[in-house]
Amino acid sequence: MTEAVTFLPKKWEQVPRQKFEEVLSNNCLLVSAFQDSILQIKEYLSDTYLFLLTNVEGILLDLDFSQNIESIVNHSPIRAGMYFTEQSCGVNAISEAMKHEAPIYLPPEEHECLAFKDWHCFSVPLKIDNKTIGYLDVSTINSGMNRELVAITKLLPAQMLISYQEYVNEQESELFFQSLTERQLKVLQLISKGYTVKAIAIKLKIKECTVNHHKKIIFEKLGVQSSTEAVSIAARHSIL
């Protein structure tokens, strides 16, 4: 039987609905990566876990949990849109990870936030190219599961970041594709096949100056300075 857990927050600061919708929209890829990664590991977990995802400001974006604590969580004040900063709810694992920009383990007795007085929590900054994009917290009420908790908190962020990067690449590919006109795509395709400006002009029955103009616009849209870079980016994002 699951041990009862007291969820009595020091104080919870809630993000206004309109702002939270904006925050959620700005972090939709991170939330998707979180949901995908949790789904992959939940069936292998042997005990009670609570998963929290916040943005860089400590705003709770999403949460997931073991089925056996569904009632406990649903009757708690923990909801998406709440701040997990120290100022908002006292010292907690997420606030400590934010403060130190490093993985933090916080045992129950070190929480000021009463909602986690029974929880062993491990929080990790999620980083891409040394830039923090959010924080992941994995918590359990079973003190005997600390080793498994640490293992999960090492593996899950890695899986999340892989998934996140895949979503980012897909989005960039779509944006790149949408930003190029049909004519610009054709010019880029011919460049990738080794056509010269003169050959492209003949092939498309346009002037060489028009080809050069298309190249200039393509370079600007892709943020590159050469045909080689443009072709490389286009190939990487499956535009060609």
TrEMBL record:
One Pfam family this sequence matches: GerE
Keywords recorded for this protein, A-Z: DNA-binding, Transcription, Transcription regulation
Domain HTH luxR-type: from-to ranges: 173-238
GO molecular function: DNA binding
Alphabetical GO biological process terms: negative regulation of DNA-templated transcription
Domain of life: Bacteria
InterPro entries: GAF-like_dom_sf, Sig_transdc_resp-reg_C-effctor, Tscrpt_reg_LuxR_C, WH-like_DNA-bd_sf
Entries under SUPFAM superfamilies matching the protein: C-terminal effector domain of the bipartite response regulators
PANTHER family reported for this sequence: DNA-BINDING TRANSCRIPTIONAL ACTIVATOR DEVR_DOSR (PTHR44688:SF16)
Protein name, per record: Regulatory protein, luxR family
Organism: Fontibacillus panacisegetis
Organism placement in taxonomy: Bacteria, Bacillati, Bacillota, Bacilli, Bacillales
